[in-house]
Design a protein that fits this description.
Elements: H1 7-14, H2 21-24, H3 31-34, H4 36-41, E1 50-55, H5 60-72, E2 78-81, E3 94-95, E4 98-99, H6 102-116, H7 125-139, E5 144-148, E6 167-170, H8 178-181, H9 185-192, E7 201-205, H10 209-221, E8 225-229, H11 231-238, H12 248-268, H13 275-282, E9 291-295, E10 298-302, H14 308-321, E11 328-331, H15 339-346, E12 352-355, H16 371-380, E13 386-388, H17 392-400, E14 406-410, H18 413-422
Parallel strand pairs: 1-5, 1-6, 2-5, 6-7, 7-8, 10-14, 11-12, 11-14, 12-13
Antiparallel strand pairs: 2-3, 3-4, 9-10
Helix pairs in contact: 5-12, 9-10, 14-15, 15-16
Length: about 425
């Protein structure tokens, strides 16, 4: 059995599984051939737990964190798995609001890899860690497991969780990962809503007609229950004092999680958290989501927003908190992102922009766009002070020398993950 004594050793053992994703992803691949046999060999731990399954384009991770926090406030033991991780791979296996300890993660991972090494099907990095999380959750006897999809839903590895009592949450749907999920909102919605299985319940906000038509058809086919709501309805239900200290975009995510929680409260006869417990869940800082740090005399806001929908949502909240401020921006984008839609959002709000790179991968092999190409697109969009800097540390130092006292780091969770480690921003 492999023995890991540090997280660095565990990470080194996991790295060889990243390239496997090239042959294991795509909207035309079957879970029957790829993931279900692997999970069966593990004893199907994902179907031995009560699962809250979250899909969507924007807000999945935040909604997952809030959902887990609301359930913890009832005194239940809660497992949470999210991706990508920001500061440590242990974020993939959280219990009761904290990543499991490095020691426990390493011990369990050694046992787990010993099991999968005996299987003919070798999982991708994401599948391995998703399966590992459920395997640990079963061992640790959690009451609920909160899980976000990795990519899409219908063919995502997490969709091996298919018990009839699964609760699904669909967050806002938009255009992203189009090379894998499809080129239209309807195609992408078909992937997201695919997490709903026979007699499941799904909670979501009302969205546009394309989304609604696809969702309604799928829910009917699965004999599932659709609970539709709106952000305003949830605000009205909560009361006028909601969200005074929360960023705008997180208010929307929390309210959706709260709507899902109220369903579970009724179904599973859970206690209602008191006002102070609810306020505590609203104060939760989700890693890498409008995540502030004080560095010298500067405020640095880190956010992993990486497509137009997410960046636009982030910027609305940024303007809410920092009205009239023109921040300095450090950005890197993954190859394949829609640069033409991102550049016009960043260019007008920034006093200075520095474009850099990242060189890390987690669930998917990732390569950043060439900084010069991003810089040229930003200039075409009207930015006047743009600098391309391949060396990430030099780019960060340049950010700290910019004239604005407020800085944004944005464009990729891979960029955030590297900088939080190398520049001690975690």
């Amino acid at each position: 059995m492999p023995i890991f004594t540090t997280i660095d050793e565990a990470n080194a053992a996991l790295l060889p599984y990243v390239p496997l994703v090239k042959q294991l992803t795509g909207k035309h691949l079957s879970l029957e051939a790829r993931d279900k046999p692997f999970m069966r060999a593990l004893g199907d731990p994902q179907n031995k737990l009560r699962v809250i399954h979250i899909a969507g384009t924007s807000g999945k991770t935040s909604t997952a964190y809030y959902m887990a926090a609301l359930l913890r406030a009832t005194g239940k033991r809660i497992g949470l798995t999210v991706s990508p991780h920001v500061d440590s791979v242990t974020e993939r296996v959280q219990i009761d609001g904290e990543p499991v300890s490095d020691e426990l993660f390493c011990r369990y991972l050694g046992e787990f890899i010993d099991i999968i090494d005996q299987q003919p099907i070798k999982p991708s990095y994401f599948t391995l860690l998703y399966a590992f999380a459920f395997w640990v959750f079963e061992k640790e006897s959690v009451d609920y497991a909160v899980v976000e999809t990795g990519l899409g839903g219908l063919l995502d590895s997490t969709n091996t969780a298919n018990r009839s009592d699964k609760l699904c949450i669909i967050t806002d749907i938009g255009l992203d990962h189009m090379h894998i999920l499809g080129n239209t909102i309807r195609e992408i919605t078909a992937q997201k809503i695919g997490i709903v299985h026979k007699r499941n319940t799904v909670v979501m906000y009302q969205q546009n007609n394309d989304v609604s038509e696809v969702v309604n058809k799928w829910v009917k086919q699965q004999d599932a229950t659709l609970l539709l709501t709106t952000e305003q309805a949830e605000r009205d239900d909560y009361g006028a004092d909601f969200g005074a200290t929360m960023p705008e975009f997180q208010q929307r995510n929390w309210l959706l999680a709260h709507a899902a929680y109220r369903f579970l409260q009724d179904r599973d006869e859970l206690p209602l958290p008191d006002d102070s417990a609810l306020l505590k869940t609203q104060a939760l800082q989700v890693p890498g989501r409008m995540d502030p740090r004080q560095v010298g005399g500067k405020i640095i806001i880190m956010d992993g927003a990486h497509n137009a929908q997410k960046i636009e949502t982030f910027l609305r909240s940024f303007r809410q908190v920092y009205p009239g401020v023109q921040p300095a921006v450090l950005i890197a984008l993954k190859e394949g992102k829609e640069l033409a839609s991102v550049a016009p959002l960043i260019a007008p709000i920034a006093s200075e922009i520095i474009v850099t790179t990242f060189n890390t991968s987690q669930d998917l092999p990732a390569k950043s766009m060439k900084p010069q190409a991003v810089a040229e697109a930003l200039e075409l969009a009207g930015a006047t002070m743009v600098r391309a800097e391949v060396e990430q540390h030099v780019a960060y130092e340049a950010l700290l020398k910019c004239s604005s006292d407020v800085c944004i780091i944005i464009g990729s969770f891979y960029l955030l993950s590297q900088l939080r480690y190398t520049e001690h921003l975690a």
